[in-house]
Batch of 4 targets.
Target 1
Amino acid sequence: MFTDLPLLSLLIWLPVFGGIAVLINGDKNSLARPLSLIIAVLTLLLSLGLYTGFDNASYQMQFAEQASWIATYNINYSLGVDGFSMPLIILTAFSTLIVVVAGWEVIQHRVSQYMAAFLIMEGLMIAVFSSLDAILFYVFFEAMLIPLFLVIGIWGGPNRVYATIKFFLYTLFGSVFLLLALLYLHHVAGSFSILDFHKVSLTMQEQIYLFLAFLIAFAVKVPMWPVHTWLPDAHVEAPTGGSVILAAITLKIGGYGLIRFALPITPDASMALDWLVIGLSLTAVVYIGFVALAQSDLKKLIAYSSIAHMGFVTLGLFIVFRIFANSATGSGAVLAIEGAMIQMISHGFIAAAMFLSVGVLYDRMHTREISAYGGVINTMPIFGGFAVFFAMANAGLPGTSGFVGEFMVILAAFQANFWYAFFAATTLILGAAYTLWMVKRVMFGEVANDNVAQLTDINRREFLMLASLAVIVLVIGLWPAPITEVMHASVEHLLTQISQSKI
Amino acid sequence: MIFEVVNMSFALPEMFMLTMACVILLVVAFLGKNGASTAYGLSQLTLAITAILIYQGMEASGGLTFDGTYIKDAFSDVLKLTICLINIAVLLYSTSYLKARALFKGEYYVLAVFATLGMMVMVSAYHFLTLYLGLELMSLCMYAMVAMHRDSSVATEAAMKYFILGAIASGMLLYGMSIIYGVIGSLSIATIAEVIQTGGVDNTVLSFGLVFLIIGIGFKLGAVPFHMWLPDVYHGAPTAVTLFIATAPKIAAFAMAIRLLVDGLGDVHQHWQGMLIMLSVLSMIIGNVVAIAQTNLKRMLAYSTISHVGFILLGILSGSQEGYAAAMFYALVYSLMSLGGFGMIILLSRQGFEADTIDDYKGLSERNPWYALMMLILMFSMAGIPPLVGFYAKLTVIKAVVDINLISVAIVAVLMSVIGAFYYLRIIKVMYFDQPVEQHKLEAPADMRVMISANALAVFALGVFPGSLMAICVAVFA
């Protein structure tokens, strides 16, 4: 049924044009919210069509579309998804819906512009995940910065201008190197198709430079230590919706970029420099874990915990070379990559839920200082239940999605090197420490002050939003197979690509 | 004796424009102070009809005429058409500004039409003297335009600087031309190219002449280190005149660079490439870094122009057809963006208020969301952020440099565009994130409102579908 429809184009342009419609409609009537909701729901439903129509057995690009865009330079509007991008597109559609719901009552200032920014961003992010032409990818990759820049700058906290300009320039700095790399690859491959880039053979020196360019671009997005410093600022100052999208999707674009560009295009350089990425990832896991422990601001704590969790993604992606080196079969390699992917998706839900929880508290108390809270669970029992659950998931409690990805990566890391696994496993302690300590200080204990005593529990809208996330976190935690199944063929294909030298 | 039949039709648009310029001059002289409106209408009519004449002649075959001093080719057609269209928009933007400041005089339009004629001659010149003729016709008109605001000491100072430095530049250019004449024995660009191709030319002396040519071109384009006049003139001139200087003349200067360096001296490409790399890299660095420190929007855009010139030079220095096409694309896109940027300053200004400091833009999105959105599009486009057309301009020139393996220059270019993004973002920051200080109601005539919207939306539309304009530029050099 879906095969005739240009589903990916619909997924990209429905939210973009919907967002423009919301923007044009303006704030004169109260249509902005319901209209945005309808568009977000429709997009999510359409995105599910990708899942049902997806052929699990194939690693080929599916739902492919192709049209000439800039004929002179042979730049095409070519779209397609595989097992890596498809789940991330659904995640994007879901997160945007949550953001629209989350901003329903909270945003009272320039509502239509707020909703429009997120809808347009949704379309652009889906386009990033489905672009198969390098320039098309880059255009969407950069264009995405514009709405996010405005969202943080207009609806953000007191220090929003600093945060948003830092965010913009940081990511722009990273991505210009990506542009150079893409132009160079075009010079070599004679086409801008990403799939052609995968096939082109490159010398070691070329690969090293290209790999470093990719790494700068995507490490800033992920973000990896030491180029992570924009993230805590951006997260703290962004409105709740902005934080959710940042954590749930934009960080994933970094991981996705490594999978789509760095690993298959420069496998030899990735192998030669895997120590660098592994080192940075483990630093993120361990050092940033300690940094998170020291935070007094709720959002900053979650931001740092995001960096630590994303460390698992990059770790999972790059230990495969060591696993291949240690065993001929490389069975752990599949585990590592799938673990990294699950970690990305799971983190998308958990971090979103954590930021939403902070948003719930912030809307009532207008502070994010941990010390301003205490004993919240006494006045907000339902919310407390959700918050504790998400905190547990963030700490990697078995049965939640947070456990699956981390566990798979740690298991795979054992096949690479004991010490990798050892340091990675410290997250189980550190993550539990900073998360649970925060929960203890905010949620439990006596009611700390009058403000906390006057808190009201979550309303139906907030309940719906948190409950849907809780269900997903639980389902993925107990039964991750539906996700691993769709990506299995693509993971296998990626592993054959990276195990073949391109020199 | 063989008489060459001069093909007048190749220069028909110019002849029409010259006639009309003289008519406008007479009308203005006859009507005196009341002639401004008539002159405005006649100028627009002239530009429009010239544009139509050029457009209609585009299909016809081209070639050399007037004894090989003048050329009609695809390159000249496209650039001349753009120059006319841009100047129509410039005059449209300027009118309300001039009216509010008692500058609404017929002389402005006479000078503008003559300057346009000069640009067209520059674009079509295929002989050093024709080129120089066009250049001087354009420059002299512009010196006078900068000085039009007689009571303003800033404007007079700017005009003085512009005139003196411009004269020096012209002198340099002439000196370079004379040296090349000494080596080649001809001033015709076609002959020069032919002689160089056959070989046996003294390259040392030729390079010596080349240096002076490049200094002249650098002055006219505003490339570092010959950029000193540019910020002062942009800042000092009335905004309507700044708008005029900042748009179409850059296209003409680009055409001059292509005629001299590529058409004439294309075979000694290796001799000028190094010099252009220096100019280009310095322009990108100085332009972008110094722009950060500006508090005046006109000055900031002046430095941004310098950096854009650096990018245009990137395309030329690559020495490939694709690079020239990229530079041409950049020059066209630049003039469109610059038109919008200065147009916006004019739109927001009123009598006694120039709207040219960055603080004047505080909270613009609260005061008028639509203008703020248009300015946002223009600024992001100048910063080179997709999906706006400024991105593709940068993309194509950087691609041209990467393709000839000058990766280090490409790295400088992309780093500088990140630095450049900062000051464009600052404009967006004050418009969107700051509270308005100025509460004066924004009023603008309908034609200007439509024009600015069309201008910014064109930047956006060309960003979504840049293919056709790129195809035109590539076809010109194919």
Note: Chain B has a mean pLDDT of 90.
Target 2
Amino acid sequence: MTRVFVPADAAALAVGAEEVAAALAGHADVVRTGSRGLFWLEPMIEVETPHGRIAYGPVEASDVPGLLADGLLTGTAQHLRLGVPETIPFLARQTRLTFARCGIADPLSLSDYRTTGGMAGLEKARSIGPAATVETVLRSGLRGRGGAGFPTGIKWKTVAEAKGDRKFIVCNADEGDSGTYADRMLLEGDPFSLIEGMAIAGFAVGATQGYVYTRSEYPHGIAAFDKALVIARAAGVLGEGFDIEQRVGAGAYVCGEETALLESLEGRRGQVRAKPPLPAHKGLFGCPTAINNLVTLASVPAILRDGAAAYQAIGMGRSRGTMPIQLAGNVRFAGLFEAGFGVTLGELVNDIGGGTLSGRPVRAVQVGGPLGAYFPPALFDTPFDYEAFAAKDGLIGHGGVVVFDDTVDMAQQARFAMEFCIAESCGKCTPCRIGSVRGVETVDKILAGTDVDANLALLRDLCHTMKFGSLCALGGFIPYPVLSAMNFFPEDFHRAHRLAAE
Amino acid sequence: MATYEAWNTDRAHGVIAGFTGVPGACLPVLHALQAVFGCIPPEAEPLVAAALNLSRAEVHGIVTFYHDFRRSVPGRHVLLVCRAEACQATGGDAAGAHVRAALAVDWHGTSAGGVTLEPVFCLGLCATGPAALLDGQPVGRLNPARIDRMLEALT
């Protein structure tokens, strides 16, 4: 029977992929994959023909009988036909390294993984030794993809040189930023890349145990990764020398902060630890620990396989390699776009993303999750680069780009940032715990027209205190969305004034 | 639709015993108890504390810190609706309001028909929002018609 590839990615399931797979059952050999990340085309199915794969989408279950009758299985049906997937402009423009396999192969087939270049990085690491492996990652220029952008090679070198009876690799898969879904896609669509990356990390720093801390909001990712662990153990990829256990979070955003995550893994409230000591010296259970974001770890196998120079050659400035940028919210072509650093925000939103889904003008773009700044179109020339965003009081975070049209109320978005901080603060430090409550109260006063100018000044002062007085990035970066909303969209904070004057 | 067992001390001891020797076992233990009983009732706290060599206060602190751990058994269905920014940008606030009106409950409430409604900050379905998770199954592109169809299909 002809093979038809149907995503089992949670976002594809959310728009009916399961029903499409059921409609195809009996007519074709249905292979479930991850998603290619072209979510406006999901459910996007691919038919294997003698001339390569032909994609169709977005396919609804009710389309399937007609498509089958018109020659779906030979790729000749014309309705919803997208052609060769790699020629779809959104895919053709990408540089897929970390997501090279996602959406193409059966994510739980270790033999598919090996035939598409998998495990070559781990073999390379073993042949060159731990020190050269750390050196390769260092020379590649890879930086933490969770948001902080710390050089991965330096972190690994610190752990490798640290003294300890046991060492750990911890993968941060607590992807809580709104607008981001890269970790989820890999857990579901290419879990062996994470396993290989962690095995390389363990070999490089001398760790024997790895933990993956996955957020509970990702039930499909958790299930897929647990299955992959069983397969990897049975095949001898994991087990003696290095093993991995997945732990599930419990709905606390702050556990994406590395020290809160370690507390949670140790079985406590997810409260932030003061640094130093750094986790690299004294991390999980007091042992030297390399804690990395999931995308960082999944990027390592290709770096080892293809060499540091190939990865280092991509990107701009001090941001080397590729970044899986996630287009989300009110954007026409919402999806995962992996590209070298340097693409501008305007290209991402207007050109690649096709502008808003609603067809209205873009008003604001939040980059980097709930702690990221709102950028107006006037800043669309900013290149996607750690330093370029920092220079404009923003951050790239985990690569989420959330687009809003001109119906957005930026004062409400500022209020939401503070409200989110109330809900998710771990409570350890005062600026975050109390400041967020005062922040909501102050925005409410501004919106009610009470002493607007004085309260705007107070809100700015509060943001300053939170930014410099908070223990971690939650309280410390919540001022970014608040201040950017105030700076770029001041008119939204003076609405009560105007209404009173009218 | 999930079914839960009534609280039973022996059964709870059995669940907790499955984690003997697991380092940092508190969250896995609490998840396992909630999967069986639907929540972490107060009676569970001293059992977990004794097994993990913690004080009851510490266990209470852990249970109440995390949004996921419930203190009472939820309805027959659990609906998580995303309230975060990417879903807001595509009408998430309106979707949330429609759900609350249709179920006649506020966030964290359980409807007369047995649907427990919880807000959630991001399900990773940000490109197909507004998004929800109904009994663990993802639902995207929520609008009033889709919400009504989804709720009508529940038994």
Note: Chain A touches chain B through 62 residues (CB under 8 Å).
Target 3
Amino acid sequence: MKGFGVLLQKEWREQIRNFKLLWIPLVFIIFGILEPVTNHFLPEIMKSVGNMPEGVEFPWPEFAPKDILVSLMGQYQSIGLLIIVLAFIGAISSERKSGTATLLYVRPLSYSSYFLSKWTMINALVLFSVWVGFLAGWYYTSQLFGSIPATDVVAFLAAYSLWIIFAVSIVLALSAWLPTGGVAALGLFLTMIMAILDSVIGAYWTVTPWKLSTYASYILMGSMDYPTFWKTAGLTVFLIILLILFGTYMAGRNAAKTTV
Amino acid sequence: MSILLEATGLSKRYGEQKAVDAVTFTLDAYTSTALIGPNGAGKTTTLSMLAGLVTQTEGSIAFEGSSDRESRSHIGFLPQYPKFFPWLTAIEFTEMAAKISGMSAREARAESQKTLEFVGLGDALNKRTGTFSGGMKQRLGLAQAIVHKPKLLLLDEPVSALDPVGRRQIMNLLKELQQQTTILYSTHILNDAEEMTDQLLFMQHGKLIDQGSLDDFRQRYAEPKIRIEFEGTDELLRFVQTAPWQVEATGSIGWIDLSVENSSMQDVLALLSTGRYGVRKVERQSASLEEIFMKVVQ
């Protein structure tokens, strides 16, 4: 782990000076606020701008507070993940391509320090963003729809955080392995394949990291079958460790591809 | 003089193509070696292997007798076009480089400041590297390469991207460093190599085709011409009329090509010492590094 602290400091400075520490949490907070607010005021908005014939009544579903957080998670699963992927897709591959990694690779640093410093900082930033986003959503949901017990929210966020760490690990490992374009293509391909697999055999294939977001919502709703969840969490942690090992190995193997 | 680095049978293959082919040489401590060759000769690949950036396909590199990866903390490397994280300041970058190479935080801070001042970036310590000009980047590149006081400094075309003023400044810095460390640098600017070299390594098509000191090369490739500067054109004319050799004359200077005459330098000096001709200067024409280079690669 030689040089881990120094590299972590470098990553920290990068997130601050590239304003990622500002805009990524801000985007998640905006989504966190918009979800309960739009759901609460949507009937009013539709009435005022909708061009509905007179006398027509549109029955809006009654949302429970927890439904709002689950719905917010849906936003994070699509737009949130897209932001994470776009922001960090070139975390390693771009440094290699631009040649900025060269002056690091010629020094006696360990590639595990190099990979883990990025992994730690990106996860910290993304988890912070997701948590403050959900906290903002929770606050407005409590104000507009009713309260949700804090313990339920924390358990829900803990489960969802494991999924986020897994997603970040995939992005970073791919970035260590492939050029930036390749990461994007393979990331897209994997997402599609996993979505198809989940729709076809999802009912039987219960122990998989791709179910974690669904399980997080079950935890929030109080309907989780915990033995299945713990198996899934264990498998996810195992896969995260494998991804870290793979990413570290690929960062070292591809060091020679850095632009000199 | 002790051997600092020994490269034995160093080869690098990319698929079917051999970028470097069985290169063997040694670097003595506190010497300066120029790696010379045309584009595509394998200079950068060789330096990259020595820096530990590229793994050799065959052969070995021993640094102070060891092939340990830890030896990298004693090596400084400057790529041809050094790239920096644009959001870091000059001192932050050099400090980071020093710390990764094993210096304590306090030592790294002090050495970074000293080194940046040495390379002429004392006024730009806290400026972000993204705002630097090409010359400043090259200076910063040099600073990060020497901040941890390496025993071996590897420089890939350290001055080729600079204008004449910047080139001169960097060359002066390198000459100062010559006293403190061992330097191996690649270049195709032969005038610069001529100024600062103890050993020359000539590469072509991935192979080390010749090596030796500059004096060795000068002797081996010396021009067999004698240049005689007379006091005036009349003196030269008298010499041309009386000397038993064919003399090529330009102004008050005469040239004798010994390769076509059946005589030696001593014969010419013997005639000139008779005192019949007013002579200002006699010298044997030595080959420039450029001429040596052209002969070696042909």
Note: The radius of gyration of chain B is 24 Å.
Target 4
Amino acid sequence: MNEAAKIPQDTHQKSQTVRGKARYQSGVMEYRKMGYWEPDYVPKDTDIIAMFRISPQDGVDAVEAAAAVAGESSTATWTVVWTDRLTATEKYRAKAYRVDPVPGAPGQFFAYIAYDLDLFEAGSIANLTASIIGNVFGFKPLKALRLEDMRFPVAYIKTFQGPSTGIVVERERLDKFGRPLLGATVKPKLGLSGRNYGRVVYEALKGGLDFTKDDENINSQSFMHWRERFLYCMEAVNRAQAVTGEIKGTYLNITAGTMEEMYARAEFAKQLGSTIVMIDLVIGYTAIQSMSHWCRKNDMILHLHRAGHGTYTRQKTHGISFRVISKWMRLAGVDHIHAGTVVGKLEGDPNMTKGFYDILRLDHNPINLQHGIFFDQPWASLNAVMPVASGGIHAGQMHQLLDLLGEDCVLQFGGGTIGHPAGIQAGATANRVALESMVFARNSGRNIVEEGPQILADAAKFCLPLRQALDTWKDVTFDYASTDSPDFVPSVAVSN
Amino acid sequence: MRITQGAFSFLPDLTDDQIAAQVQYCLEKGWAVNLEYTDDPHPRNTYWEMWGLPMFDLKDAAGVLLELKECRKHFGDRYIRLSAFDASHGWESVRLSFIVNRPANEPGFKLQRTEMEGRHVQYTTVPYSADKPEGQRYK
Amino acid sequence: MLDETLVPTSVRLRDEIEGAGINEVLAQLDEDLIGLKPVKTRIREIASLLLIERVRQKMGLLGDTPTLHMSFTGNPGTGKTTVALRMASILHKLGFVRRGHLVSVTRDDLVGQYIGHTAPKTKEILKKAMGGVLFIDEAYYLYRPENERDYGQEAIEILLQVMETQRDDLVVILAGYGDRMEKFFTSNPGFRSRIAHHVDFPDYEEKELGDIAELMLKQQNYQFSEGARRAFDEYIHLRKQQPLFSNARSIRNALDRARLRQANRLVADLDRELTATDIMTLEESDIRASRVFSKTES
């Protein structure tokens, strides 16, 4: 047990707000005395609420730490300023109103902080995040700080356009219903010439995938200029469309050094008739919102690769939970976002991942502590985001993927397509057959979780590529403990 | 070639019993099922001809199968697809769609390229069958 | 197709009947409907036959699905619809229909107003009924020989065809007055040949109608006073001799009117302290105020 845990903490302190003349005497005053700790405050329907996991430095009072976070993420500075008195300061002060010890994690606390809606600019993730995470993450009295969840009022949600296509319109445009979509990231991610790259795209799409994808770091390097990639990829997409009679797409990554260059690449993708473009999370929130607006104007689907998120989402004590990123990205208006696979090679606790998927797809998220959802969140009919499952998944896991992730997602089998022993087209076919067989079996009333391997084995009887895929990857799993796991686990209720 | 539109095109052609099981799944979800046919399967041909209206309030797949058999009698030489509509808020669109009948021979598509400025190519997908008038395309 | 390995060599009927839950349905029928002895006996017979048919099917002794279409004849209000509901449930439990719902229609639901209207209308109803039971009340209205342009004939043809070719998919019950159904079958022999079971619903005895009235009241938390029950028995006797008597339906209507008069009587004295019994009880005067009594006196 660490040192901090040994100090008893009182999280039920009464309000200590200093009122009247004394409040504005020059000097330093504790945050909880300045009005940033208001345990009796009842958040308004129009407040934005943030829930942080705080780990105070040894000897720092948890309530004071929570008040400091509220202060530093809204109006406060380290000392009293008389200019506060020129404003409706009580309204603008964020208020920490609840602090709970984290179950099973001594020294950590959940702090709930309410922000008045007037603190934020409409429709701007940049402004929202500048407030909420702008300053406080480096604040000395805290060892660590993590933004766990946020609740947005409907009034604020309505200032965002959200995803341009979202799940339903995307399906309508692509004419694909009733099953997850299939994709693959072109591999190797670096080094292929445009011409060779297009070959991979053609083979994969012809074999049965709906999409192929550029990887996050494929932009415009010496081995492949972006225009080469776009031209060859669209040749491949159109050829594949003609040989299958089915709409196909490839996520052309338009991430670039400047907005001007990104727009230029997006325009070219549009001219070539692409249905979808792609950006990386690292381009920044404003650039993401700009591209979302461009996509709405240009009938384009917007795919977001969450490049870089692992630097701040993975550790439980510090950073930002991916569920918050999911909420921001739904507001910002991306149509696709990578959100985890549970069974693949990348971090993803099943419960946490279900929480992310629910945030992206449902019109209303009820509180679900087990899935890490701390707030009831209505989405006010904002379009749903299509989650993308990518990273170390293969056809042999199809029953688990469909059961865990549902049918409204994109399953991306990169290695699981391109690494097929009989070639890329065979790899794609194996995945598509596995997928269709599984959806078909589920709809026919079979229990896919239990009968999954048998359903795949039966399909492999008429599909040689699937048999080869199952043999190749039969035992591949990535079974490591997750670092980002739930704090709340269901306990066995005793009834009667 | 084999057109791979719809949810189950990579499976062997479905039997009527298999179709009925999928339809029953849709009916139990409260979705209305409809049938459409075409002899122009261009991937962007959204509006196939409707075989009657979507069937609402059915309890059993037999009603849909009755119509499918009837539709096949008239348009068995063409593509027929079955779609299920979900009217619930937030979806209000198709939930499942798959092909239930194909022409004996699927001629496929020609890819026409028009060379534009620089290396830009404009692509047009043309069904080989579209040269003939509607109704005579798969004779 | 029957899998040889699954064909049982012997069965115990008790297991079959208990497995299917038929006894519960029959008990429910007893509870729902007063009297109707002959009908209940007939339904039991049909249920037994169906049970044996099912066993025969299991043992591979039955090739085709047997014809199960029925006709229910009798005057209005004799329980035909209620029995049809239970029959749908029996057919479902024995696996002769897949869903077990009942779609109840009359001529207007099947026959269109203009040319080309009837076939889609009839088909739509048939599609909705598939997996269950289609109950056509007053089926003879489908047939109007006096009008040679009648669209009813079109509906009849579609019905006959589906009754013949889709026996697996639905069971049709034709219902109506006995004499008119007889005429209907005579002029449409196609129907007669497709009907496997005829059930005749006799009119209720006067005593049974009185019991039905008490049951209906009980279901709504009402009761007769002693005098009221005697008056109601007299009422039944008189009402039966008047035109348009429709058994249980007429009883329900009479009770609705009596409840109206009781309410009026109670409201007439606003200051009276009322017990629950007062509010539940129909008095003799509530019954005797009926026009049925005044007519006989005049």
Note: The mean pLDDT of chain A is 92.
